[in-house]
């Protein structure tokens, strides 16, 4: 059985706590590895070593740090397939989807190559008589990232890239469900020239998380996961005087107007609702067609597309549409929510609960599921299902449709499909959600913009990647300087009269 430890001071080390967690093959249900779960003492030791290493790294000029990022980009591209295979084997994503996971993280590292420009301060000449003022962006010191299972490459890269480019040392606590890719990325960073100790990867569970939250050396924390845990980390981290950004759950709505191209909308919903088995915080889980005629037409388009979806292990080829859920517990939770939807009166159009794949009967697979006539009081609407389940919530008017998204407690992403520019502009202006798609189902911004949700989907003032990430991982120091005058006039041999 494979034993997975930690990455500490530039090398793999075994865990010392005596505790571990199972890492499953989601396609078969078999345990394929054990990952060590760090104790508080192990976490604190990793932080102490990182603090020592950070001093020299923080004093390294931004251009040299950017060159490490440049080489890191090359190495990720070199090992793209290897990273994607490891990711698929532990998470269950299809191989193309796993490569996309790595690629979207890589794009943030490419943005970080611009660190010398992004870290420039401001300068005011002659702010007063003989006075100049300037600002400097400087690293915080040791910072940490706590990242989820659903994007084991992308989100660690979103966190570590800007943090390291800014001159910080970084403690990564990845998900214990799929820990191999973060460790592989740490090895590539070492090969790219990152000094030992500047990046520490510590696997663990709540004990490690609490140790990060309470460690006085850790200056900032970035988190992605469920909303209850996001609120917990944000509250405890801020109470301990840390800078904290936390991104939580989602319930993303896609509004389909009567004038929308129905084939385009149906295709978009299939990818956005069922891709990655629905285990995306930006997945569309609620379709909101406006008018019964629109809803009927949409359902008619969706059903044959759903019936053609190919569900299977990543090893079955690149034509697999999505794979298994990450664990057996996730499978049981999703099936339970589907059952609750039936019990509470929603119309089950496509039922994925009894899906079985020959040869993979013990895998964590659930078939694509479609509900119609969902209402806002149902659990399948109120909860983030995180599975391949699409709910249809019918609206009579545009105002009713937009109201569902506005009133929902989550505010991560949303989309509208329409051919009317006025409707699209009104939607973008009025909606209280962080990321908006207009005829784009999953509006994840590119790396040079910022990613972040509103309401209970995001906690903290600054977003992930883009310019906000460089603001989050640095603090500004402002200098006011005045130099004595007179030296430029040469030597003086007489006492100067008092003015």
Supply database-style keywords:
499 residues; alpha/beta; Aldehyde Dehydrogenase, Chain A, domain 1; Aldehyde Dehydrogenase, Chain A, domain 2; 2 domains; six-stranded mixed β-sheet; globular
Describe the structure.
By secondary structure, the protein is α/β, with parallel strands linked by helices. It has 2 domains: 2-248 and 457-481, Aldehyde Dehydrogenase, Chain A, domain 1; 252-438, Aldehyde Dehydrogenase, Chain A, domain 2 (3-Layer(aba) Sandwich). Helix content is 39%, strand content 22%. It has helices at residues 40-59, 62-78, 80-91, 95-112, 115-118, 154-165, 180-192, 206-214, 227-239, 262-274, 292-307, 328-343, 379-382, 398-407, 421-430, 467-472, and strands spanning 2-4, 6-8, 11-13, 20-25, 30-36, 123-128, 131-139, 142-146, 169-173, 199-201, 218-224, 243-247, 252-256, 284-289, 347-350, 369-372, 389-392, 410-411, 413-417, 435-438, 454-455, 458-459, 474-482. Strand 19, helix 15 (421-430) and strand 20 (435-438) form a beta-alpha-beta unit. The model has no long low-confidence stretch (mean pLDDT 96).
Could you give a short description of this structure?
The protein is of the alpha/beta class and 499 residues long. The protein has 16 helices and 23 strands. The chain folds into two domains: 272 residues, Aldehyde Dehydrogenase, Chain A, domain 1 (3-Layer(aba) Sandwich); 187 residues, Aldehyde Dehydrogenase, Chain A, domain 2.
Oligomer: single chain
Major β-sheet annotation: 7 strands, mixed
Structural class: alpha/beta
Shape: globular
Strand ordering within the main sheet: 15-16-17-14-13-19-20
Helical stretch tally: 16
Would you report the number of β strands? 23
Give the termini separation.
85 Å
Mean pLDDT: 96
CATH architecture assignment name of the largest domain: 3-Layer(aba) Sandwich
Report the portion of residues in β strands. Answer: 15-25%
Report helical residue fraction: 25-40%
Estimated radius of gyration? 25 Å
Stretches where pLDDT falls below 50 for ≥5 residues?
none
Q: Classify the fold: give the CATH topology of the largest domain.
A: Aldehyde Dehydrogenase, Chain A, domain 1
Overall number of structural domains = 2
Using the coordinates above, name the CATH class of the largest domain: Alpha Beta
């Amino acid at each position: 059985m494979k034993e997975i430890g930690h990455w500490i001071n530039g090398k793999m080390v075994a865990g010392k706590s005596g505790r571990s967690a199972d890492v499953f093959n989601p396609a078969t249900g078999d345990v394929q590895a054990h990952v060590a779960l760090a104790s508080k003492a192990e976490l604190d030791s990793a932080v102490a070593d990182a603090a020592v290493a950070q001093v020299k790294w923080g004093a390294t000029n931004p251009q040299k740090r950017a060159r490490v990022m440049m080489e890191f980009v090359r190495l990720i591209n070199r090992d793209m397939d290897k990273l994607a295979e490891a990711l698929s084997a532990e998470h269950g994503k299809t191989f193309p989807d796993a490569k996309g996971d790595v690629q979207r993280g890589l794009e943030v590292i490419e943005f970080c190559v611009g660190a010398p420009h992004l870290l420039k301060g401001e300068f005011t000449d002659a702010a007063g008589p003989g006075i100049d003022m300037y600002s400097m962006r400087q690293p915080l010191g040791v910072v940490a990232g706590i990242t989820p299972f659903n994007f084991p490459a992308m989100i660690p890269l979103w966190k570590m890239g800007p943090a390291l480019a800014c001159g910080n040392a970084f403690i990564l606590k990845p998900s214990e469900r799929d820990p191999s890719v973060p460790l592989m990325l740490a090895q590539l960073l070492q090969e790219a020239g990152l000094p030992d100790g500047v990046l520490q990867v510590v696997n663990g569970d709540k004990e490690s998380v609490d140790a990060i939250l309470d460690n006085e050396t850790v200056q900032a924390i970035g988190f992605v996961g469920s909303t209850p845990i996001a609120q917990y980390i944000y509250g405890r981290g801020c109470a301990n005087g840390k800078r904290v950004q936390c991104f939580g759950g989602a319930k993303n709505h896609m509004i389909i107007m009567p004038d929308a191209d129905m084939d385009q909308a149906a295709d978009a919903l299939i990818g956005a609702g069922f891709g990655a088995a629905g285990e995306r915080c930006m997945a569309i889980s609620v379709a909101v067609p406006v008018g019964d005629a629109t809803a009927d037409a949409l359902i008619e388009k969706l059903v044959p597309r759903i019936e053609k979806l190919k569900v299977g292990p990543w090893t079955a080829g690149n034509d697999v549409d999505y794979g298994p859920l990450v664990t057996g517990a996730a499978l049981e939770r999703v099936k339970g929510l589907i059952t609750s939807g039936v019990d509470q009166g929603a119309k089950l159009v496509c039922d994925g609960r009894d899906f079985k794949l020959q040869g993979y009967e013990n895998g964590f697979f659930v078939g694509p599921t479609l509900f119609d006539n969902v209402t806002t009081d149902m659990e399948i609407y109120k909860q983030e299902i995180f599975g391949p389940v699409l709910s249809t919530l019918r609206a009579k008017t545009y105002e009713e449709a937009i109201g569902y998204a506005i009133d929902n407690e989550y505010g991560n992403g949303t989309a509208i499909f329409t051919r009317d520019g006025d409707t699209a502009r009104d939607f973008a202006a009025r909606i209280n959600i962080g990321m908006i798609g207009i005829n784009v189902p999953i509006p994840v911004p590119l790396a040079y913009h910022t990613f972040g949700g509103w309401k209970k989907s995001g906690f903290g003032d600054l977003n992930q990647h883009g310019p906000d990430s460089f603001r989050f991982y640095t603090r500004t120091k402002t200098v006011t300087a005045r130099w004595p005058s007179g030296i430029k006039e040469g030597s003086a041999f007489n006492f100067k009269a008092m003015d």
